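== Fold encoding ==
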Amino acid sequence: MTDDTTGSATDGTVTDVLVAPATPDATPRPGKKGKKRSGRATRPQGAAAQGAAAQATQATRDDEGRGQEAQGGSATPAPSTKRPSTRPNVPQQPVVLRAEGLVKRYGQTLAVDDVDLEIRKGSIFGVVGPNGAGKTTTLSVLTGLLRPDAGTVTVLDHDVWADPTAAKRAMGVLPDRLRLFDRLTGAQMLFYSATLRGLDGATARSRSADLADAFGLGDALGRPVADYSVGMAKKIALAATLIHSPRVLVLDEPFESVDPVSATTITDILRRYTQGGGTVVLSSHSMELVQRTCDSVAIVVGGKVLAAGTMAQVRGRRSLEDTFVELAGGRPVTESMEWLHSFSG
């Protein structure tokens, strides 16, 4: 806030007003011409003005010198108390999904080891890590599919375990291992997913048509899902996840087994979704795709978050793949495998 900020007393805010209030004598009295008072001190004129100014200046200097001598310092000008005129920083988006101290064990295996995450509104947040790093377990805990041994998860300030109905109402979840009602047709599955979320029939059919066009599934809606390819099954599952327009999407490997054209389509849909205020959390093994799609990322190795932040903060001047490989333990040494060059037969 700069020093020249003014405000109205009726807008409910507190602002700095640096204009001196007028004194009662500032209002001219009716019927008394030539005796109007301004409420300000009268300035001395001519030589008297110069003499008064010189005396005031000298008095100020003397006072400053005496004050600094009393403190044992030299007679240098006192620092200005005027606040710097700076533009306020752009506020960060609110946190919509927060995880604190997550721990999940499978017997002696520590799959999630004290994980903390903050995911903000409007972001596409990537979770990357090697096989067995704990990515799927972490996402399953975030969405309430697994109960952690310790820690908390909140979605839009709703605790996933204390208030699961409110938390899950705001989420759309695409799990890693798809479990679809494959005897339904694509149209029936979308309709079922929509009505399960409380949408009426007309809205369900309208949104199903929009999603089928967006994902290129229009000709396949009348066929059983069991007849779909792996990529088509992934797309119909993602469409079912989006149909109720959730505020937070959690997608485990949404690009797996998806062709490049469909991957581009999915990326465009996710970007439009976040531009409208939605938030996406996704995991992927494709470093190049995550670097191109996500604006924030967390690298998970051995159940721990080794790095998290914006994409620029995590990868620095290197590629995300180089940073990931270094944190994950580097490239394995293969010099001892000379037998690979001794072909059989």
Observations:
- The longest helix spans residues 46-70.
- Residues 1-49, 67-88 have pLDDT under 50 and may be disordered.
- The longest strand covers residues 95-106.
- The beta strands are 95-106, 109-120, 124-128, 150-155, 158-159, 171-174, 248-252, 279-283, 296-301, 304-310.
